[in-house]
Amino acid sequence: IIKDKEYLDFLDWLKQMGCPKTKLTLAEFSNTGRGMMATKDIKAGEVIVQVPESNLVTMKSLEAIYGSRIVRAKKKINSHMIIALHIALMMQDPEKLGWLPYLRLLPKKFDTMPIRYPKELFDLLPPHAQAHVNRQRSKIMADYNSTLEFLKVNNDLLKRPLEYEDYEWAWLVVNTRCIYLDAKKQDTADNIALAPMLDFLNHTHDAKEYGFVTPNNPFNYALVDNDFLQLSIPGESPSAKNDKMDLLTMSGYFCDYALHRNDVSFRLMVAMRLRLINPFSTASVATQLEIAKWHNVVSGELDQISSENERLLPKYIEILCDALLFDAKKSLGILARKPTTFPVVHLQQLWIETRDIAL
Q: Which of 174, 195, 223, 330 is geometrically suited to a Cys-Cys bond with 128, CB 3.0 to 4.6 A?
């Protein structure tokens, strides 16, 4: 249990802000870092944490602070971007709005997150994880550039220029701590909020939340998109493979192929059955009949395309598992030679989970 001055000051601040008492306290966990822990039994249906609406940081609440600045720019900004800017601005002048006790408890850095990995560790992420991180980096950069445009006409808000590193940190604060409000808006992205105290809650797979490195999470999975696309199948010509990829795309089954510990995703089964139709020529009547059968299997009207197709299916799923297992063992071997740091431990666990899925 953590009882340092910063946390005690934070509790006093919560009391001043009108937050009711809770049976939770901040604690340090050996495998997941800081999170909330119950100090007393919690009854079924009992409210665990209650945060007054006045304490929520939302697009709406920020309009009360920044006024017409946000209203004028609303078409060019989003909730994540403006809340991140608000956090960054508060860090430039921590005592101005009276939120210093909260700011002091925010993570100082996010070096354990893949987006902050150095290149040699980033390269050890699975391909689909690398792609996800790159998309996130692009999103942060786009939000940062939009923020700079916003600040061109609101430069008086700044104490000093807003550097990318400072904005990225604030963006990650929002990304890792925000909640979604149950509001009647079409754009759920604008329903996010920061909620002091509530954002310290740690999630486990018992609540069916998927974490990047949650140990033994039954919801963990491994994507095998790259291995599927590189899979060599006898009798499949390059043009036939391209036609199949087009058909998968049009049917909504291109990529996002997952393996679970004791299961193969429906998407992967659908795609593999199509890959195993050979010979394959869209100009052929025989192929069109096979495609029709494939559609019927997807919809559940048929059990199989053919007995041969079903016979080959587990063989090629196993080939994907073998490729995944090879990558896992190779990556674990490289990681074993690196100094033990949080990112290395996270990567090791990711690849251990991947290895166990592939076995």
A: 223
